[in-house]
């Protein structure tokens, strides 16, 4: 039986995946804290919901983007904080894998809802 941290993460992943499939910057940025830090697929640090929205608004308009999360681990830090790590595989033009990255989120309870406060992706290729 999944614990509450798994349920929190699964719910956010479902909403994140749905928003990404529509490239809906408003829906995606709503999943983030007003104080979010966001490192996506470029070297810029985006801050807050407006920064997250700007990141997603700046992506190319692929015809049928989708994302698949795998190897997801969730760990409750305290009553108001959850860590998540996994692999995000992006399919941008059809069924061919376009990009797979390591992804981590820190998720916190904010104004009674769970929000991503820190988002970071990195290459799966070893750097050292």
From TrEMBL:
<dbReference type="InterPro" id="IPR032710">
    <property type="entry name" value="NTF2-like_dom_sf"/>
</dbReference>
<protein>
    <submittedName>
        <fullName>DUF4440 domain-containing protein</fullName>
    </submittedName>
</protein>
<dbReference type="Pfam" id="PF13474">
    <property type="entry name" value="SnoaL_3"/>
</dbReference>
<feature type="domain" description="SnoaL-like">
    <location>
        <begin position="9"/>
        <end position="123"/>
    </location>
</feature>
<dbReference type="InterPro" id="IPR037401">
    <property type="entry name" value="SnoaL-like"/>
</dbReference>
